[in-house]
Automatic annotation (TrEMBL):
Belongs to the DNA polymerase HolA subunit family. GO terms for cellular component: DNA polymerase III complex. This is DNA polymerase III subunit delta. Residues 222-341 form the DNA polymerase III delta subunit-like C-terminal domain. The keyword Nucleotidyltransferase applies. The lineage of its organism: Bacteria, Bacillati, Bacillota, Clostridia, Eubacteriales. It holds the Pfam family DNA_pol3_delta. GO terms for biological process: DNA-templated DNA replication. It catalyses: DNA(n) + a 2'-deoxyribonucleoside 5'-triphosphate = DNA(n+1) + diphosphate. SUPFAM superfamilies: P-loop containing nucleoside triphosphate hydrolases, post-AAA+ oligomerization domain-like. PANTHER family: DNA POLYMERASE III SUBUNIT DELTA (PTHR34388:SF1).
Length: 344
């Protein structure tokens, strides 16, 4: 398993693999990597004729394999991309869905024994949270394909990307302001792009200041709250408690954590109610004042709950808030009890 820097070196040396498998939590970053390989391999004048794309959660691997077998047009190579490759995740869900996943995974294994030389197959699977790790299936493919774990950008790499985004939007930002921005923003490319756009618009042609950044940036803990609720949806209390402890260690107060969890459950309730009434992602993001990307993630998260369970969890939030305000018992114990009750 390699990282993006190692992949970039291989591509620049024209050391191409027949199959690339990407995994990570930032889909935008993964898509950028896929685009980098595609643009390095295909002539842009013939890209439409030598590029195919399939939804891995719906397409059987036989169809994908057939596309890989066809010859490229006016090119040495063709590229086949498989996104949302849920057959790379460890089994979960219904027996029928697991049967399809296992069949596709076995066919991929067979395909990799003798891949066609004219095709580069690119497969990617997006993690549900930042804390998810590569599945056992992905690990098994490490020696048969080039597996790339797309980690979050950090340090100078993140600063370079953000600086390019600001400059591309025609905005000025100093070095210390750039460092502050990178320390405050959630490490997700879609969110980063959105926050850059907001700041550029807010500054309105002036150089971006630290005051602007602190005024406009959301708190980083919002992403942790999303992940905490996500683990509660999976009834994974251990991982949820790990995030709770991280938040407390960083100095977040327990009443504020409960407030943020309550807000998340309320948003999920309204989103689930909206989707059941036929509302689109665009309408929901407008009504609830959410970025479309965030709204899409929350729609996915809301599907993990029933309306009954969301109502019950909101009631538990209100009960726990009363306990925190009216008793002198340990706040940490009370919120831990609350979290256990949400998964019962």
């Amino acid at each position: 398993m390699i990282n993006y820097a190692e992949l970039e070196k291989k591509i620049k040396k024209h050391e191409l693999d027949s199959c690339y498998i990407f995994c990570g939590s930032d889909e935008k970053l993964i898509k950028d990597h896929v685009e980098y390989i595609t643009n390095s391999v295909l002539d842009k004048n013939f890209i439409d004729l030598n590029y195919s794309k399939f939804d891995g959660s719906k397409t059987d691997f036989e169809t994908i394999s057939d596309a890989c077998e066809t010859m490229p047009f006016m090119s040495d190579k063709k590229v086949v991309v498989v996104y949302r490759a849920t057959f790379l995740e460890d089994n979960s869900g219904t027996k029928n869905s697991n049967d399809l996943k296992n069949k596709n995974f076995l066919m991929l294994n067979e395909y990799l024994k003798n891949p066609p030389p004219q095709c580069i197959l690119i497969i990617y699977y997006t993690f549900l949270s930042d804390r998810e790790k590569p599945s056992n299936k992905i690990k098994k493919l490490d020696k048969k394909a080039c597996v790339i774990k797309v980690d979050k950008l950090k340090g100078e790499s993140l600063q370079k990307i953000c600086k390019n985004l600001f400059e591309g939007a025609g905005a000025k930002i100093g070095k210390s302001e750039l460092v502050l921005f990178c320390s405050q923003v959630d490490n997700n490319m879609n969110i980063i792009i959105n926050e850059v756009e907001k700041l550029v618009s807010f500054a309105n042609g002036k150089e971006i200041t630290k005051k602007d950044i602190l005024a406009m940036m959301p708190q980083k803990s919002e992403n942790d709250i999303f992940n905490l609720v996500d683990f509660l949806s999976q009834k994974n209390i251990k991982r949820a408690l790990d995030i709770l402890n991280e938040l407390i260690y960083r100095g977040e107060k327990i009443p504020f954590i409960l407030f943020m969890v309550t807000r998340q459950f309320n948003l999920l309730f309204n989103i689930k109610l909206g989707t059941e009434n036929g509302k689109t992602k665009e309408l929901l993001s407008s009504e609830l004042r959410l970025h479309p990307y965030v709204c899409e993630k929350m729609i996915s998260q809301s599907n993990k709950f029933t309306m009954k369970r969301l109502k019950r969890n909101i009631e538990l939030c209100l009960e726990t808030e009363k306990v925190l305000k009216s008793t002198s018992t340990d706040d940490k114990t009370n919120i831990e009890v609350f979290m256990v009750k949400t998964v019962m």
